[in-house]
């Protein structure tokens, strides 16, 4: 079975074509700046790369362009789009309606529209991508894989907020959590690497990147996570503020005369390590600036490391202990200094970092000492393969 994995953003489309007979990535790419004058597609296959710069006014054109290049005589990897057996879509928010991936039909599309109110930045482009694929490939099964689904196993004590109960029953206000596909992949992969059943492990997975979240995974199920009703909550991130006193929102809006949209932009786009440092949302840039003596860049990094370390402690308490802590995503997989700073002070948990082993990037690796009772690992995430696997399983049924 050949599966096309699609991840649509507001102005982008990431894709992978996967042969599920051996889980080989046949081709992958990115369409950027959809709807802008300088749109482009970057396509990679068989160790080669091709860039196409042209007008790409909408996602329908973007999907058509992707299918054209996948079947192109020069850089294509399939003869025609009839070779594509199914399409798997990343969908950010499934609310309480979806606790697992699902085949897309008219009822599912209506449910996705209802969930859009809870993820106005993410779900609408996800839906646009689905509709574009359905229009071009109407006979091909489409599957939705939700970022929120993995966290639906959290108990009410973990997902409820201290607000009037009616806000939950009438408006769905609760903790949902995100990055679920990544957390699920890493949980399965670390169990495989350690040679254990995932049901035997208490895992804290640190998905650290421009967007960051931690998840407590016990007996293979998520019992708590740091993101909340939206992906704004939890640890300080690239441009997102993370957890703050909610009264700050009202205070700043009143004092600065900000609209709800302006306040949302401030918290989502102008805060985080970018807002603290004034330098960049890229952790590599922050590291360089801190080394050169930039105190605000150093403060931003110190805050990030401290908050991740603090949340590791709280998630360990939620599970009554922890067996393994994993680091994944851009910063988690590649930030050698970041991992070292986060792990400094975790010895009380029994987690001891080995500096030599920690000198690693982008591959499965044990980074704790031999006498560390809590194991530390780097596990590169692979959300696309999880989407492809779910798609194959559902379509095969």
Main attributes?
397 residues; alpha/beta; Nucleotidyltransferase, domain 5; eight-stranded mixed β-sheet; six-stranded mixed β-sheet; 14 helices; 14 strands
- List unreliable stretches of 5+ residues: none
The total of helices stands at 14
**Integer-rounded radius of gyration:** 21 Å
CATH architecture of the largest domain: 2-Layer Sandwich
Question: In total, how many beta strands?
Answer: 14
Largest sheet: 8 strands, mixed
Summed over residues and divided by their number, the pLDDT gives a mean of 94
Approximate helicity band: 25-40%
Q: Domains counted in the coordinates: how many? A: 2
Organism: Megasphaera vaginalis (ex Srinivasan et al. 2021)
Catalytic activity: acetate + ATP = acetyl phosphate + ADP
EC number: 2.7.2.1
Subcellular location: Cytoplasm
Give the topology, please.
Layout: E1 2-8, E2 13-19, E3 24-32, E4 40-45, E5 48-53, H1 59-70, E6 86-91, E7 102-103, H2 106-115, H3 123-136, E8 142-146, H4 156-159, H5 165-171, H6 180-194, E9 202-207, E10 213-218, E11 221-225, H7 246-256, H8 260-269, H9 272-277, H10 283-291, H11 295-319, E12 324-328, H12 329-334, H13 336-343, E13 365-366, E14 375-378, H14 383-396
Parallel strand pairs: 1-6, 6-8, 9-12, 12-14
Antiparallel strand pairs: 1-2, 2-3, 3-4, 4-5, 7-8, 9-10, 10-11, 13-14
Helix pairs in contact: 1-3, 10-11, 11-13
